[in-house]
Design a protein that fits this description.
It contains eleven helices and four strands, in the order H-E-H-E-H-E-E-H-H-H-H-H-H-H-H. By secondary structure, the chain is an alpha+beta fold.
Length: about 200
């Protein structure tokens, strides 16, 4: 098993939140993988050919090639089951998957606007993130982690966004203090610290 793990290569943009999600999972599960940084616009030919959308991470694991952070982290959670990052109970798992879908659809779908790649849409995108996190603030203090007492893929998915809030010029109001407290707990985890690229460390 260890020999097979050592052959795994992941291509990761050091500034990309989707790649960051994957790196957190790698560190949390202590997966032995070679992480190779990608430079936007300068992708190796094999990576560009494997990932038709040109964003996010790409995984090469022997004959298996995967792209899309959600697909990759699900694969990691199934292939390397300890520690599990999704609930075992079907009902709890379904609720977690639904929230993952909402995070992707409601917040990460705004990433191009937040990053300034969609002219004139940044202010509205920032306001949506700020208001949504404020409304959901009670969820961040109801348990040790987001919607769970166990660290999960929900935390791996949220953490890159929360880490980038200052760089995105998003300041949460005092009424969302629970979100900030939650984020700081996640940021202190060894796995999160180990997941950070130099570019990401400079965001704060």
């Amino acid at each position: 098993m260890n020999n097979r793990r050592s052959m795994m290569t992941v291509y990761s943009d050091p500034a990309c939140p989707f790649s960051h999600q994957m790196r957190i999972v790698i560190q949390e599960k202590e997966i032995e993988a070679e992480i190779t940084d990608l430079t936007p616009g300068e992708w190796p030919e094999e990576v560009a050919a494997a990932n038709p959308y040109g964003i996010g991470p790409t995984l090469f694991d022997r004959d298996l090639v995967l792209f899309d952070s959600r697909v990759i982290v699900d694969y990691f959670d199934e292939r390397f089951p300890h520690p599990p990052l999704m609930p075992v109970d079907p009902v709890a798992r379904a609720k977690a998957r639904l929230m993952l879908h909402r995070i992707d659809k409601d917040w990460y779908s705004l990433w191009d606007a937040l990053a300034g790649r969609e002219r004139g849409k940044g202010a509205k995108a920032r306001k949506i993130i700020q208001e949504d996190l404020t409304v959901l603030s009670p969820l961040f203090e109801s348990s040790s982690f987001f919607m769970s007492n166990e660290f999960s893929l929900l935390d791996c998915t949220l953490a890159p966004l929360l880490w980038r809030l200052p760089a995105l010029n998003i300041k949460l109001p005092d009424s969302a203090k629970a979100v900030e407290n939650y984020a700081n707990r996640i940021f202190e985890r060894d796995s999160f610290q180990a997941s950070l690229s130099d570019i990401e460390r400079a965001m704060r």
